[in-house]
Amino acid sequence: MNDFLWWRDGVIYQIYPRSFADSDGDGLGDLPGIISRLDYLADLGIDALWLSPVYPSPDKDFGYDVSDYCDIDPRFGSLAGFDRLVAEAHRRGIRVILDMVMNHTSDQHAWFKESRSRGDNPKRDWYIWRPLSGSSPNSAENEGRRRGVPNNWQASFGGKAWEYDSLTGQYYLHLFTKEQPDVNWRNPEVRKAQLDAFRFWMERGVDGFRLDVFNAYFKHPDLPDNPPKFGLRGFDRQRHIYDIDQPEMTPLLNELRALLDSYPERYAVGETYLATPQKTVSYCGPDKLHAAFSFDFTSAELIYPWNPRWIMRQIARREETFNPAGIWPTTVMSNHDLPRAASRYAKGEDDAQAKIAMLLLLTLRGTPFLYYGEEIGMRDIHLCRNEILDPPGKHYWPIYKGRDGCRSPMQWDDTAYAGFSTAKPWQPVNSNYVHRNVLAQRADSDSIFNFTKKLLALRKEIPALRCGDFAPLETPPGLLAYLRRTEEQSVLVMVNFSACDRKYTPPDGRWRVLFTNAKNLQDISSNLAPHEARLLVGEL
Ligand code: TEU
Question: What's the start-to-end Cα distance of the chain, in Å?
């Protein structure tokens, strides 16, 4: 594994385009803004960008409701501007990954407008329409049909998954908002049109794709009721056995992979919705996806545990699943759907735990996905109820406040609006921008920015950190330790989660210090300082 393969050995940086950099002063980030920051990203040391959706969208779900798969929203730029972004990124050795949102379109997509217009429209079957029911023979057992809706399925963002459309007197299915109708992937024309969109972007030089909730593309053809389970929100109170993870997905992935492989070095990573590591692995392989998210550290929706023992259990779980199957894992600590890692684990503005999360992200076995601003330990913003924009936040407040918190503007410097824009941004800037920003952290050798940058450089330099195998080590409480090993080299990663000095004796070997964030490290066997992350390297 010495030949550098960008999506396996590199680091992927997620940009939420509307919040990264605004070039034209409308308060919304855009493509020229991203281009203007490519030197920053190259200097940081990342290998690829994943752009959250930049297609035309009415923004009912902030770009995840696409109204045209083959264009750029004018608020972000143009197709020509996108071509420039790809060329400029490539000039710096940075790959570009697009977000394909193909479980559903916007209700403003031309396909849905046609589909909804008449029951006999040629595109009617491009979506999932069902008549009002009520006379089902099993209606006594069948809770969904009793209410007239086709079944009991729930929308992830609140309410029923069926919307009644009075124009034709039928219901259509939507697993997210009602403005995001699910497409019918069983229709061969839909399948062709969607695959054509991949081709369209690959022809423009796009290197890879992130597939939004891909494992929900197919629904059981009979649309049976999902069985109940315990949960807080309606959607969580069902076992999703009929609306997610249907067997038809595998042949589609085979077809998609063949298409990707007809271009050099293209990549697809799937957002496996509600997935265990086993499920995730089942979608990956040489004739399926290159990778898929298993969200090992972020899936506990409401409580996010954070202690070495729990973390090691999660790591073991993914290693035991991914390693024997020969599937390369991904590591995610933050993204646009979650409270940021620094907000989950850090106390106030202290970055000790945020640095530990960063260290794990960059030293575990797997491709790290870094979320914009994670490198400066950005924290979530807190909004009042009437400021919430995110649909599930609006629906479920106060039990769930939505995802606006992690989508605030990038904090570049301490000028107005944090150097993100010259106008009031679409989401408020976190007030901590005055001290927490790229410019200030660059100048501070102890900052999480310089911590991150140093680790990114070490990953480039030390093959064991990129492709070495993983071996957990026994530690006293409060510590986490593991080895990353190639045939020539071992890296020992040691982390002290606690606020006290801790003793840890490295395994026998000829070690030298590769990295530490402790102030005065005497020698390799001295106690780990509070919250210290120390990396030793041993040549074998
Ligand atoms: O996410 C799937 C999804 O709905 C969850 O991650 C969700 O955000 C979480 O359970 C909180 O409710 C993808 C996208 O990442 C997300 O931004 C979109 O809103 C969603 O699909 C629909 O496209």
Answer: 18
Average pLDDT, stretch 169-194? 98
Sheet containing 291-292: which strands, arranged edge to edge?
291-292, 267-270, 208-211, 95-100, 48-51, 12-15, 367-371, 330-332
Ligand 1 centroid from CA 249, angstroms: 19
Which protein residue has the closest C-alpha to ligand 1 atom 18?
A: 64
pLDDT band at 139 (very low <50, low <70, confident <90, very high): very low
The question of whether 203 is a catalytic residue gets the answer: no
Å from CA of 49 to ligand 1 middle: 19
pLDDT in tens, 208-220: 999 999 999 999 9
8-state DSSP, 243: S
**Using CA positions, which residue lies closest to atom 14 of ligand 1?**
212
271 catalytically annotated: yes
Convert the pLDDT of each residue in 381-399 to its tens digit: 999 999 999 999 999 999 8
* CA 337 to centroid of ligand 1, rounded, Å: 6
pLDDT value for 174: 98
Name residue, tokens 């281009």.
Answer: 35
pLDDT at 140 exceeding the cut of 60: no
Bridge partners for 160 per DSSP: 154
Q: Are 344 and 374 in contact (CB under 8 A)?
A: no
